[in-house]
Amino acid sequence: MGLLCNARIFEFLTITSLILISSSPAKSSGEKPTAYDVLQDYNFPMGILPKGVTGYDLDESTGKFSAYMDGSCSFSIEGSYKLNYKSTINGYISKGKLSSLQGVKVKILFLWVDIVEVDRRGDDLEFSVGIASAGFSIDNFEESPQCGCGFNCVNGQPVIFA
């Protein structure tokens, strides 16, 4: 009876292990993580980049990075902020900090200004335009906005409220 019980336990563990291994979404060793994955590795939510990033370069020794999109990207969020991303975004990344940013602008009133730094402070992100900064909850960046329509999209098109 003990031998039969041990055989059943072994069979159960083997089947369970195979199910867990086959259902794991593990990346192959040669597969490069996405730019969104890298952001999360550095303690940033993926939503600080819009959808459509096609690739990136990262020098892990210095933190210097470039992220690429097929074209520039603009959208409005919360009805008051308009953002513009160039097709190439450059800067330096470290745990909880993006610095020396190039290629990201925000429209404040009637003036476009560069976002030069983003700091993670607990559950907030602090965006700096050099002379001023503003903080927002990371909850606002759980998903990536879409070029052209931000978060107000249906099938990739802006939703117009009448």
UniProtKB/TrEMBL annotation:
UniProt cross-references to Pfam families, sorted A to Z: DUF538
Residues making up the signal peptide according to the UniProt record: 1-30
Entry keyword Signal: yes
InterPro entries assigned to the protein according to its UniProt record, in alphabetical order: At5g01610-like, DUF538
Alphabetical UniProt keywords: Signal
Name of protein: DUF538 domain-containing protein
